[in-house]
Amino acid sequence: MPAPHRASVFDSGSWELDLARRELRTNGVAVPLGVRAFDIVEVLVQSAGELVTKDEIMRRVWSRAIVEESTLQVHISAIRKALGPDRGLLKTVFGRGYRLLGHWPLTQGAVPPDPVVFQIVPAPVASSSNLPLPTSELIGRETARQHLLALLSAYRVVTLTGPGGIGKSALALDVARQFLPREAGDGWLVELAPLSDPRLVPSTVAGVLGLKLGEDAISDEAVARAIGAKQLLLVLDNCEHVVDAAATFAETVMRLCPRTTVLATSREVFRIGGEHVYRVPPLEVPPEDAEDPSDILRHSAVALFIARTRALDSDFSTNGDDLSAIAAICRHLDGIPLAIEFAAARSAVLGARHTASRLDDRFALLTSGRRNALSRHRTLRAALDWSYDLLPDPEKCLLRRLAVFAGGFTIEAATAVMDGGDNGEAPIMEGMARLLEKSLITRDGSIAGRWRLLETIRAYALEKLVASDEAERTARRHAEYYRGVFERAEAESKTRPAVEWVADHGPLIDNLRSALDWAFSPEGDASIGVALTAVAAPLWMRLSLLGECRSRAEQALATINAGESRDARQEMKVQAALGTSLYCIRGPAVAEAGAAWAKALELAERLGDAEFRLQSLWGQWSFHLNSGRQDIALELAQKYCSLAAEASDQLTGERMLGMVEHRRGDLRSARRHFERVLAHYEASNGQQVSYLPVDFRVVTRALFARILWLQGFPDQAMRTAAASVEQARSVSNATWFHCALSACLIALWVGDLQAAARYIEMVLDPSRNRELPLYSAFGQACRGMIAIRGGDIANGVRHLRSGLDHLGEGNSDLPFVISELAEALGHAGRIAEGLAAIEETIDRAERGREHWMMAELLRIKSELLLLDGPASAAAAEDHLRAALDWAHRQDALSWELRAATSLARLRAKRGRTDEARQVLAPVYDRFTEGFETADLRAAKAMLDALPPRPAEPMA
User: Torsion angle of alpha carbons 715, 720, 721, 725, nearest 10°?
Assistant: First the structure.
C-alpha cells in the first residue's frame, strides 16, 4: 500500500485524483474504482509519467501479499475501463511495466469533513463479519474464486449473475470469506431474498450494519453517509426481485463510500456505471464420448455429484456403468450445482443409473433440497418458479415460445415463432436482451449470433408452453420456419463448399428433429413433415446420419402412400434419400435401394427434373454395378455422362466410368478416367455433388492409389492413399471412412501392418463411427487380416467372419475379404472350406464380369490346392498360369508378381529351377519402386534362393 499523504489533488486536464476522498474524478464527477486499482493510479501519478515496473507496482500496492501478474492485469483493465475515452493515458511498456501520461500537477486540497454523520453501532456478532461458516466444501470453483478475488480489489461493484441454482450465493460467500483476511475492514452479508417491498433495501442494510438512523431518516444516501469512509465489503445476496432498488443503493454507495466494495448476486445485472458483471459458469461436464473413468472424474460436476452422494451414503461407490450414468446426469442437468445436488440426493436412495433413467421427469424427481435452504431452493421447480414469476407477461411469453427450440436459435428464428413477428425483429431482440440479462437464455458459445436455453430451463419453459394455448401455434411456426430454412439450404448445398455448408447448417439438426417429431405427431401436420424430409436429406448425408435419414424417409413415404400428402416432387426427393441411405447402411446392391432409385428415376423423368434424373441414374448405376451387372452399369454411366452439364456432374460421370472399368479389370482405362477426375478437381472448387453420401472426388484419390498398386507402383500408392485420408479429414465421416479403408487395403498389400492398424483404428473410432455399419463391418474384417498376417490365425478368422456377416451382398471389396478368409482357412487346416469359398467367389466374379481380382483369386485357389496334397500340383500350376495371363492382360503387375512368385516356388520344389527363374525374374525386373514391400522382398528372396543360371558356353 502506498505511504499515506496529506490531503492533495493531482490534476490532469479533465481528470483529477483526490487522495483525501480517494476519488478519481473526471470533470468533477467521481469514477468508481476499486481499492487496489486506486492505489495503482496513485503510484503511477506520483511517478510523473515515468515508467513503473510491474514488480514495483506489486511491491508497493500488495506489500504483504504474493500476487500473480494476472491479478495486476485485471486491475490495469479496470483502470482503463474507468478512464473510458481517455484510456490511452495508461500506456503499457511490453514486458516491463506501465506509465500514466499527461500533466498531473500537485495542488493542495482541503481535508474534507468526516462524511460519517451517524454513529456506527456494532452489530450483535462477536466479530466484524456476519458471514456464515461454510457447511460443505465448494467444489469446482477454484478458478472462479481466484478471478473474483482480483476483481473485488479492482472494481467497486462486482455482480455475480447466472440462472437459478448455478451457485451464485455459495460462490459469493466463499469469495467474501477469502477476501476479508487479505483486506482490512469488515464484511457483511445482506440477504435480500425475504424482502417483498423494494423500498426496504436501505433499512435492511442498516439493520445488518446496526445503524441507528431513525425510521424517518432511512434512505440510500443516509445509509451510505453512515458507512462513510469505513472499509467494508457488502454482500448483497439475491437482488433480482428488488434489482432496481438494489442497483440504486449500490450506486449511492459507490458515490459516497470510497472504501466500500459491493459484491452482489442477482439473476439480473444492475446496469450501473462501474459495475463489473461476472457470469457464473456451470460446472464442467464430461463430453458425450467420454469413456475413460479418469477423464470423467476430472470434471467438476461429477466431483460434486460424488461428494454429495457420499455425504448421504457412506457406502456409495462407483463403477464403470455408474460413472457413465453420473456423466449423463451431469450433462442433462447442464452442470447446474443445485440440480446436481438434488440428483445426488436421489442417487443415494435410487442409484445413479435409475436416477439417470428418470431425468425426463426431472421436476418431480429432483425435490430433495436441504432443510435449511431457502424455500425456492428446496426443489428444482421452485428455483425456476422464482425467476419465472418475476418476469413481466411479454417476457414470460417469449421464454415459453423459445422453449420450442431443441437446439440453439437466432433472432430470425425467435421472431418466426412469435405472433408479433410481423412487427419485425426489434421487439424480439429487446425481449431476448432482457432474458439474457436475467440469465434465462445464454449465448451459444460455439456459434456467433446464436442463443440457447440451458436444458433444465428449457424443460421448465416447455411445460409452461404445453400448458398454455400457444403450443400448437408455436410448434407449427417452428416447423414452417425450418422448412423454409432447409429449402434454402438444399439449394445452397449445390453451390457452397461442403465444409462451409455443414458449419452453417449442422447445428440445426436438433431443431430439424423436433420439427419432424411434431409434424408427424397426432397434433401435427404431416404435409409439413413430408416437405421438410424432402429438403433435409443433404444435411443427414453430410453429417453421415444415414440411419436417421432412412427412418425419416420411410416415415414420410408411409404418409405419402396413405394418401395424406401426395406431391410428386417431394416423393421423388424422399425416394432418392431412402435409396442413398440404404446404399450406405445395407449395401448398394440391396433390393430396396434399387426399388427406391427406380421410383425416383421414374418421377424425375415424368417431372423433367434434370438434377434428380442424374441422381437417380447414379443410384441405379450403383445398384447394378454392385449387383454384378457390369454391362448395365456401363450403359447407365454412359447415359449419365451424356446428360451431365455441370462440371461437377461430368467429373462424377468420369468416376462412374472409371469404376466400371476397374471392376471389369481394364486398369489402363480406369486409370485414364480417374486421372481426368483428379486433374480437374481444382477447377470444380472442391464442391461435393450435393446428393452423394461421400465426396467421390476425394474418394477418387483413394481409388487411384489402388490402381497404382495394382499396376506396380506401391510407393506411390501408399503416398496417394495417405493424401486421400488427409484430404478427407474435413469432409463427411463416410468420405473419411472410405478413404481410411482404402488406405488400409493398400497398407495390407504392401505389408505395412502398423500403417494398416492405424487406418483401421480411425474407422473403428467410436467418436466418429456413427450409423455407418458397412464401414464398421469392413473395418472388423480388416482387423482380422492384420491379425492373420501377424500370426494370430484363429482370432483373425473370427474377425473376418464377423465382418462378412454384416457386409452383405454387393460390397465392392467382398471378393478380397472372402479370398483372405479362404487362404486363412487353408492355413488352419480347413482346406475344403477354403476351396468352397474361393470357388464360389470366382464363379460370382465370372457371372458379373467383375474381373479385377481374378488373377489373385486363381492364385489363392492354387495355393489351397497345393495344401490339399501333391496330387493337385498339376491343377495348381494350371491355375497359376491362368492367373499370370489374367494379370498380364490387365496390366496388373502386382498380381502378376504374386502369381509368378507362387509359380516359381512350385516349380522350384519340383526341381525345375530354371523355369522358376524364367517365370519370376522378368516380372520382378519390371518394377521400378517398392523394393522394401512384402511382395517384392518375398520375390527377391525366392530369386536369391534359386541356384545361379549356368554360364553360357564360349563360342
Answer: 140
Q: Of 124, 144, 431, 381, which Cα lies nearest the Cα of 265?
A: 144
| Residue 548 cell numbers, joined | 436417421
Three cell numbers, residue 302: 461429477
CATH architecture of 696-704+727-945: Alpha Horseshoe (1.25)
Residue 302, amino acid: V
Separation CA 836–CA 826 (nearest Å):
11
Q: Are 680 and 491 in contact (CB under 8 A)?
A: no
Topology, domain 391-468: Arc Repressor Mutant, subunit A (1.10.10)
**Identity of the residue numbered 210:** G
- Specify the residue for cell string 479492482: 154
470-684 domain in CATH 1.25.40.10? yes
Q: What is the pLDDT of residues 743-753, one digit of tens each?
A: 999 999 999 99
Q: Is 211 helix (H, G, I), strand (E, B) or coil?
A: strand
Q: Whole-angstrom Cα distance, residue 764 to residue 332? A: 27
Instruction: Tell me how many degrees the CA angle 691-692-693 measures, rounded to the nearest 5.
Output: 120
Kindly state the cell numbers that stand for 10: 493531482
Lookup: cell for 758: 492405424
| Interatomic CA distance for residues 549 and 555, integer angstroms | 10
What is the secondary structure of 661-715 as a DSSP string?
Answer: HHHHT-HHHHHHHHHHHHHTTGGGTTPPPTT-SS-HHHHHHHHHHHHHHHTT-HH
Q: 605-643: per-residue pLDDT in tens? A: 999 999 899 999 999 998 898 888 888 999 999 999 999
Q: Are 214 and 245 in contact (CB under 8 A)?
A: no
CATH topology of domain 8-108: Arc Repressor Mutant, subunit A (1.10.10)
DSSP 597-638: HHHHHHHHHHHT-HHHHHHHHHHHHHHHHHTT-HHHHHHHHH
pLDDT digits (tens, 9 = 90+) for 676-694: 988 887 555 445 555 566 6
Range 399-416 average pLDDT:
92
Least confident of 445-449, 560-564, 579-583, 781-785: 445-449
Nearest to 711 by CA among 652, 667, 762: 667
Parallel/antiparallel/unpaired status of strands 157-161 and 260-265: parallel
User: In a 3-state reduction of DSSP, which class is residue 60?
Assistant: helix
CA 445 to chain centre: 12
Residue among 425, 455, 427 at smallest CA distance from 441: 455
- In 3D space, the residue among 456, 240, 452 whose CA is nearest the CA of residue 340 turns out to be 456
Residues 882, 885, 891, 894, Cα dihedral to 10°: 50
pTM: 0.73
Cα–Cα dist 831/839, whole Å: 12
Helix (H, G, I), strand (E, B) or coil at 365: helix
Tell me how many degrees the CA angle 694-699-701 measures, rounded to the nearest 5: 160
**Which of these, 78, 99, 77, 74, lies nearest to 89 by C-alpha position?**
99
Cα–Cα dist 601/611, whole Å: 11
Kindly state the cell numbers that stand for 579. 435409396
Q: Which residue has 435492511 as its cell numbers? A: 204
120 compared with 662, residue with greater pLDDT: 662
pLDDT by residue (tens digit) across 441-473?
888 866 678 898 888 888 889 989 999 999 999
CATH number 3.30.70.100 is the correct assignment for the domain at 142-279: no
Number of Cα atoms under 13 Å in the Cβ half of residue 634? 15
Percent of the chain surpassing pLDDT 70: 88
Helix 471-492 to helix 509-519 angle (10° resolution) is 130
Whole-angstrom Cα distance, residue 453 to residue 434?
Answer: 14
Question: Rounded to whole angstroms, how far apart are CA atoms 149 and 271?
Answer: 21
Is residue 904 within 8 A of residue 898, CB to CB? The reply is: no
Q: Locate cell 440428483: which residue? A: 343
Q: In a 10 Å sphere around its CB, with 0-12 CB exposed, 13-18 middle and 19+ buried, how is residue 114 labelled? A: exposed
Mean pLDDT of 155-181: 91
